[in-house]
Amino acid sequence: MSAIAPSPAPNYKIGSEKLIKVLPNASNKLLSLLTKQGRAEHGALRVAVVGGGCSGLQYKMDLVDGPANRDIMVTSNEVRVVIDPKSALFVTGSELDYSDDLQQGGFKVTNPNAVVTCSCGESFAA
């Protein structure tokens, strides 16, 4: 019987709020969601930039157990955010906010790198 070796800890970098800043409303919502999922201690929000949307690029956000290899992890307003190096090129200087407005609610990224945004606010071009 062979023992299964524990997987090595991921190799990631620590970033600063210069990469992405989580505003208080987003922090409160994310901490609530992470707590509901039992991930309050080590969980994180993964922010990625993927192709799609009417302007060419869009954000993809998921709650994850922590950083993966090569990720950059930023702690902002008590929330850990992990971003892959390629996405980091597009989100540098961004702010993440949250609104529970019925029409325009949800998480919103304010990105100084976006040269074009679509009217729905869900995609951008850099």
From TrEMBL:
One term of GO molecular function: 2 iron, 2 sulfur cluster binding
Pfam families (alphabetical): Fe-S_biosyn
InterPro entries hit by this protein: ATAP (IPR016092), ATAP_core_dom (IPR000361), FeS_cluster_insertion_CS (IPR017870), HesB-like_dom_sf (IPR035903)
Gene Ontology biological-process entries: iron-sulfur cluster assembly
Domain Core stretches: 20-121
PANTHER family listed in its UniProt record: IRON-SULFUR CLUSTER ASSEMBLY 2 HOMOLOG, MITOCHONDRIAL
Protein name per its UniProtKB record: Core domain-containing protein
Species annotation: Brevifollis gellanilyticus
Lineage: Bacteria, Pseudomonadati, Verrucomicrobiota, Verrucomicrobiia, Verrucomicrobiales
